[in-house]
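Hi everyone,

Forwarding the result from last night's run.
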Amino acid sequence: MTKAKGEHHYTVTVNWTGNTGTGTSSYAAYSRNHVIQAEGKPDVPGSSDPAFRGDPARWNPEDMLVASLSACHKLWYLHFCAVEGITVEAYRDEAQGIMAEDPARGGAFTRVTLRPEVTIRAGDDAALAAELHDRAHHFCFIANSVNFPVRCEPRIVFAR
């Protein structure tokens, strides 16, 4: 396959491991478990949300969507901080996504809120550090690909 300039391809395999012996003979007859795989990377155990008969110990697609938004934002943010001379010493995001069920089409996310707490070097420009979240959001590949609002409520603290 020929790639256009600037085009990136991602190949993953989702392997359903939930056949408990009778396949999908009924809604309750099968497990929602699967394994997400990509060459050269560790497997990710997946399932559905526990509300939909999934295993709560495994990642579900909704968790992974919120995690993807958070991780993409963080990667862009760290990039812009490095370029602008802001030294980030710690970054932790307590992101939350909200999905609403819809009988007509299953459901959809209505919003995701990122809540990164960023620790920067004492003496760095806290106002610039806060502004860089807007730039990171503007460039985030994943946020640019979804059809619901992604909000960011950052908190900037200085290292001791």
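The first strand starts at residue 13 and ends at 16.

Cheers,
N.
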